[in-house]
């Protein structure tokens, strides 16, 4: 378990009045990975980029798994709680409690972002998930997500995030009251340039009313 104040991470306050992006890398990545996306997704915004706390054959991850697509759901629940705790600490520590926070995750990072939204919507109510899927098989979701907004960006032929799981997570989010925007493209796992443009527009539309 990572002690909150010792969690390796990067932070930039960005310009006043902008959102803060919670950048969550994919398997094998680091807190540096999504920094090049930050300025393209929300020019001038701040960012909070922690490192995944789990090791798998020397690769950083956000939670354990038993195999490709077979998640240790107990660990997903634990790690989503740890991430929410880290976010709460950072919002106070860096003085950004009044700024809108948008989780932006890729692959494994998208999955932990979705887990945090589903389990801790008061802390992580807004998320952009690139190549993510449903991370909580076998768990019932009771949270009220009526204040949550999520954008799902997925490839139609992604073997690592099957489209049926993508449909499922969107349906579960909506069933609990969340606003869900779905974007499905041709191709597989990854972040396509058109998705970056779409996510930037989505982030702008979902934070403008807060920051104006």
UniProtKB/TrEMBL annotation:
<dbReference type="Pfam" id="PF02230">
    <property type="entry name" value="Abhydrolase_2"/>
</dbReference>
<dbReference type="InterPro" id="IPR003140">
    <property type="entry name" value="PLipase/COase/thioEstase"/>
</dbReference>
<feature type="domain" description="Phospholipase/carboxylesterase/thioesterase">
    <location>
        <begin position="12"/>
        <end position="206"/>
    </location>
</feature>
<keyword id="KW-0378">Hydrolase</keyword>
<comment type="similarity">
    <text>Belongs to the AB hydrolase superfamily. AB hydrolase 2 family.</text>
</comment>
<dbReference type="InterPro" id="IPR050565">
    <property type="entry name" value="LYPA1-2/EST-like"/>
</dbReference>
<dbReference type="InterPro" id="IPR029058">
    <property type="entry name" value="AB_hydrolase_fold"/>
</dbReference>
<protein>
    <submittedName>
        <fullName>Alpha/beta hydrolase</fullName>
    </submittedName>
</protein>
<dbReference type="GO" id="GO:0016787">
    <property type="term" value="F:hydrolase activity"/>
</dbReference>
């Amino acid at each position: 378990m990572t002690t909150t104040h010792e969690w390796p991470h990067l932070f930039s306050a960005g310009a006043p009045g902008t959102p803060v992006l919670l950048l969550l890398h994919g398997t094998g990545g680091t807190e540096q990975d999504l920094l090049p996306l930050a300025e393209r997704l929300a020019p001038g915004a701040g960012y909070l980029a922690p490192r995944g706390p789990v090791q798998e054959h020397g690769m950083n991850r956000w939670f354990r798994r038993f195999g490709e697509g077979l998640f240790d759901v107990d660990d997903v629940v634990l790690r989503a709680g740890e991430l929410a705790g880290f976010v709460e600490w950072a919002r106070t520590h860096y003085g950004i409690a009044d700024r809108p926070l948008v989780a932006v995750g890729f692959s494994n990072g998208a999955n932990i972002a979705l887990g945090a939204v589903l389990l801790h919507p008061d802390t992580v109510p807004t998320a952009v998930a690139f190549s993510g899927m449903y991370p909580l098989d076998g768990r019932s979701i009771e949270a009220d997500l009526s204040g949550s907004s999520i954008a799902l960006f997925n490839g139609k032929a992604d073997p690592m995030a099957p489209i049926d799981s993508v449909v499922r997570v969107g349906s579960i989010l909506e069933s609990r009251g969340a606003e869900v925007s779905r974007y499905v493209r041709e191709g597989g796992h990854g972040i396509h340039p058109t998705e970056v443009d779409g996510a930037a527009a989505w982030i702008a539309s979902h934070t403008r009313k807060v920051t104006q």
